[in-house]
């Protein structure tokens, strides 16, 4: 039996969070949205998790029929993906490719350790935002790429600032997440319940 | 985290040793990853090199030949 998520009149990122939580409990979810942005965001997140999405337009809203495909591997979560309060998204802000100040070599090791550890502790962030030199972590050759791809497969949104990628001339080298803009980044930070900045 | 692979960790005296070990193993195409020491092995902050259990002997031999001092290899 499909789980219903009524996301009409809900502001971003609620439709995505509630759908993702529903997918932890059910193989079939029907998310009802009332705008194109919500439709795109929910569809993208569900497809990233390996689900199929069938939109059905009805008079009272757009019904997104989401189904976990049997032949596509969906990474199973044995623990909650997001923080306990669904309306308080947890956002991780990564403004640098290094962690901490001082020895850059140590900073590089620490950030590798952090992203490895994210796969083992809870809660997981709902969104990870990469800014300035932090965008170097989402490109080919990054030694946290595998960890980020693992997180992305679990439905975590990964956003990399487009301006920053352009500044470092790395736009065509992005291998995980999506290229975002300051509007989305600002919105995500301001609507967050908690922002953890490295 | 891949749940189907069996891992072991190589414990080393310092972070520099960990980096050195990782460089040597990577050059030999031996699968490895620098990770924090798992909490059930040590409560102190430190780094170790995660390897496949199947590669334990190869790793021990490779690091020994390169004179990289290790404190032990433990199955995860």
UniProtKB/TrEMBL annotation, chain A:
Coiled coil: none annotated. It holds the Pfam family TusA. Residues 4-66 form the UPF0033 domain. InterPro entries: DsrEFH-like (IPR027396), Se_metab_YedF (IPR019870), Sulphur_relay_DsrE/F-like (IPR003787), TusA-like (IPR001455), TusA-like_sf (IPR036868). PANTHER family: SULFUR CARRIER PROTEIN YEDF-RELATED. Belongs to the sulfur carrier protein TusA family. This is Sulfurtransferase-like selenium metabolism protein YedF.
Automatic annotation (TrEMBL), chain B:
InterPro entries: Se/S_carrier-like. Residues 8-74 form the Putative Se/S carrier protein-like domain. It holds the Pfam family Se_S_carrier. This is DUF3343 domain-containing protein.
